Amino acid sequence: MSDLFSRRLALLSNPANLPLLTECLHGIEREGLRVTPEGALAQTPHPAALGAALTHPQITTDYSEALLEFITGAHTDPAQTLDELALIHSFASSRLQQEMLWSASMPCALPDEQDIPIARYGSSNIGRLKYVYRQGLALRYGKTMQCIAGIHYNFSLPERLWPLLQLAEGDVDTPRDYQSRRYIALIRNFRRYSWLLMYLFGASPALDAGFLRGRPHQLQQLDDKTLYLPWATSLRMSDLGYQSNAQAGLTPCYNDLTSYTDSLRQAVSTPYAPYVEIGTQRDGEWLQLNSNILQIENEYYSSIRPKRVTHSGERPIQALVARGVQYVEVRCLDIDPFLPLGIDLTSARFLDAFLLYCALQDSPQLSARECPDCTENFLAVVNQGRKPGLQLQRLGEPVELTRWGLELLDGIERSAELLDRAQGGQAHVAALQAQREKLLDVGLTPSARVLAALRENAESFTEFALRMSRQHQAGFAAAQLSTAQQASFDASVQASLHEQQMMEAQPQEDFASFVAAYQASIQNPSA
């Protein structure tokens, strides 16, 4: 535990500064497949009763037409965030008719690739661009992989906190650059320690046997319909997922914001020979937006991203370059199939303490040796995190996962105590204690509980996830919205449908010119 961390804790512990920690913001994006009552992938269009996926602020789709995404606003209390997420679930479930939301990150038994529907967003140029981007993802990575679902946790520290820390540390950078630098430092620490999140919250140790489509693999057979790894925590985050030779050399080590944005801008602008050979169009139909390493910056798959709320028509890199980092998006969380929302308040409270620790702890730049160690530690835990005596690499030396995890929790407890002093009660320390118990008893981890359920009930992965899906659906159906809540959702549905219609009624420039202008915008991100 560094002296710098202790000094920052002391500064924020001052009664005059402590209330700042009640102003952190939290948002959640939860993905989930629509499935039939029998657990098959829904082949129906995105329900009009949920609004327009292009324009609805809370209910959209991710890759597939069947892959819903629920988006909350940003709230100072994660309990409010989860309350909003629960309302979205209840409303959506009431509009899905016979369909329901799949309970797990790894997908249900999927149809043939050609029968997995890509999400559609209408006839406007931006709607077409979103569709063609997904066509490119299918071409580059296959549709099956795109049906994996997860939870994204958005977190920010209050804007008023950064000048306080900057003044105390005598930093002479611009306030915007200091804030961005500190968020990038948070991300570096996240990369160092995020293996712990995979141990604590990984919930995908098994998958449907058909998911791999006959590809070679190292998984074991649990039953005739289920593949697994005995010590895995999150096959979703393993290299079973996004296989990409094109992205193999693209691993920003987050030593500063400029190098991060430059690396992404270069990837979005650099042709990749196999994609060039395919081309962007065939017989007048668009196949991908471009033939570069990345079509757009969001194609880079990472466990955490620096983010800034974008203006209309603005690209993520443009927002970061123009106004700096505003929050982080944690992207490595599995959906917990035992939880109706896929995440609960205990998990959120611990994530807050963990991210505050990453923000306040000293964060030297990642060396050429440490950067690959972070990646290897992460992959070791997702593949065999519950293996007794598993060794990770810490500053070039082997260390047992359990020992390192408990030491990390001792440090994170300091930030949990600080949050509890600011907000009252002991919720954060209690959430941390729940994670300590998982390190002391591996059977309490979600991944262990999933495998235990499969064995105890003699269920395949698909049967287990379907049972949990039905259970959660019944709970959502029983949670009646108030008249005012129902009216609010109905109004947002109609507003989104109207907004898309208005967009499509506007004159549209030639789509090829629109794509070219979109591509050119990355060359001048400050424009």
TrEMBL record:
Superkingdom in the source lineage: Bacteria
GO MF terms listed in the record are: ATP binding; glutamate-cysteine ligase activity; metal ion binding
**Which reaction equations make up its catalytic activity?**
L-cysteine + L-glutamate + ATP = gamma-L-glutamyl-L-cysteine + ADP + phosphate + H(+)
Ranges for domain Glutamate--cysteine ligase: 10-380
Task: Print the keywords alphabetically.
Answer: ATP-binding, Glutathione biosynthesis, Ligase, Nucleotide-binding
Query: One GO BP annotation here?
Result: glutathione biosynthetic process
Instruction: Identify the HAMAP family for this entry.
Output: Glu_cys_ligase
Mind telling me what this protein is named? Glutamate--cysteine ligase
Classification of source organism: Bacteria, Pseudomonadati, Pseudomonadota, Gammaproteobacteria, Pseudomonadales
